[in-house]
Design brief:
single chain; FAD/NAD(P)-binding domain; binds flavin-adenine dinucleotide
Length: about 400
């Protein structure tokens, strides 16, 4: 039998395409290499699944860091966060807004999200334990070879995800197929992940667990700044501002040494100076003044790192005061390494968007071949962006088949 369409990969992207194909009565087949679908989806959002967010399409796109982010306008305009909310609500699952950004299922369980997607496909058309190894195209028909069987189809949708968390099935096979078929791609690289700093683990080990609520993390020597939470860990630094910076740190590290700098106080430089002036009038010890500006542990560290004794602020030289102010507003640490792409939450890289029609998700090089979800060179920060991208591109593709 020649199928109308074969979808490879049962993650959110592939499942959404199948849901649309199902509603159109198209003769499709879903091939999944694991013994069940949605393995990664189940672990998302700490098993609560941050499905989407409350941004409109313009704000959603401007939150992305990729140069080619406009590629997503077509799919997000057709199927964006508000359509995703409607889809789950119509299927009996309300999504609840948290922190005025992220939507989670009312059950607080990612399994409820998967259940809704499963309910929208014909499970008789799902073949699990079907590991696709090769895609060949000849005379308008694709031959798909799995570990067990060979299938024929008129159209193929590749929804195999990236190379992050390979134990969930995302082993980067989309790029293997691209290579087999002559489709251009960029290798997967880590994004949204932690970074390593020997300086932190050796010299600032007592800061482990100390967190900053609103750090502005700059990659020194570039214009890249990301703001948000930051936490010192036993191996380096983490937290949202670091996760968002990680893909750029990775890029920079390929050619040079990288330092990052951030504020360890929420006060501006002017406010810091005026608090120091106040401290002088009140004959305060420097540590007491510092503790008003940052955490106790960081205050102690600032003095140790700048080799300044804890004494009356009036006894400290102007040069040393400036040294402290600089450290509070521009704390610098060298970064040695970014977490691997396999352990990163998301991957940058994937199928080159220049070779995909954003109106259909069809390859411009090979007709009837489609790429969707994280296997494409599109990704977002944490905050429901990535599942939204998977569902949105999955919908766009299904609707155009
Ligand atoms: C720990 C963690 C937490 C996350 N939390 C969130 C979150 O809360 N919100 C959010 O928006 N994003 C989150 N993400 C990112 C999000 O999970 C992914 O971006 C999303 O799952 C991508 O969907 P996808 O369908 O493109 O690919 P995937 O979900 O990776 O699915 C790909 C599927 O294809 C199958 N497959 C692969 N190769 C083959 C093959 N050769 N043959 C057959 N089948 C194959 C795989 O087994 C898998 O089932 C998180 C990621 C991680 C790792």
């Amino acid at each position: 039998m020649v199928y109308d369409c074969i979808v490879i990969g049962g993650g959110p992207a592939g499942l959404m395409t199948c849901a649309v194909l199902n509603s159109k009565g198209i003769n499709y087949l879903l091939l999944e290499k694991n013994d069940s679908i949605g393995k990664k989806l189940l672990i998302t959002g700490g098993t609560r699944c941050n499905v989407t967010n409350n941004l409109n399409v313009d704000d959603f796109i401007s939150s992305l860091t990729m140069k080619h982010k406009r590629f997503l306008y077509g799919s997000l305009n057709e199927y964006g966060p508000s359509d995703i909310l409607d889809f789950f609500r119509k299927n009996g699952l309300n999504l609840i807004l948290e922190n005025n950004l992220k939507y989670f299922p009312e059950t607080n369980k990612s399994s409820s999200v998967l259940e809704v997607l499963k309910r929208n496909i014909d499970l008789r058309k799902l073949k699990v334990n079907s590991y696709v190894k090769k895609i060949i195209k000849k005379d308008d028909i694709f031959t798909i070879k799995t570990n067990r069987e060979v299938y024929q189809t008129k159209k193929v949708v590749v929804a195999t995800g990236s190379n992050s968390y390979p134990s969930t099935g995302s082993t980067g096979d989309g790029l293997l197929f691209a290579k087999q078929l002559g489709v251009k791609y960029k290798d997967f690289t880590p994004a949204e992940t932690h970074v390593y700093s020997k300086y932190v683990s050796d010299k600032l080990s007592d800061l482990q667990g100390v967190s900053l609520v609103n750090a502005s993390v700059k990659i020194v020597g570039t214009k890249i700044v990301n703001t948000g939470g930051l936490v010192f860990t036993h191996f380096g630094v983490s937290g949202p501002a670091i996760l968002h910076s990680s893909e750029f740190i990775y890029e920079e590290l390929l050619s040079k040494k990288v330092n990052i700098s951030f504020n360890i106080t929420e006060n501006t430089k002017e406010e810091v100076i005026s608090l120091f002036e106040e401290g002088k009038k009140e004959n305060k010890y420097i540590l007491k003044v510092l503790e008003k500006l940052t955490t106790k542990r960081l205050s102690k560290n600032v003095l140790e790192l700048s080799i300044i004794e804890n004494k009356n602020i009036n006894e400290i030289s102007k040069k040393d005061i400036n040294k402290i102010i600089e450290m509070l507003t521009n704390f610098i640490i060298p970064i040695d390494k970014v977490q691997s792409k396999e352990k990163a939450f998301v991957n940058a890289g994937g199928i080159d968007t220049k070779g995909i029609n954003p109106k259909t998700m069809e390859s411009k090089v090979i007709p009837d071949l489609y790429f969707i979800g994280e296997t494409v060179d599109i990704h977002g920060p944490i905050g429901g962006f990535n599942i939204t991208i998977a569902l949105s591109t999955g919908f766009k593709c299904g609707n155009n088949i």
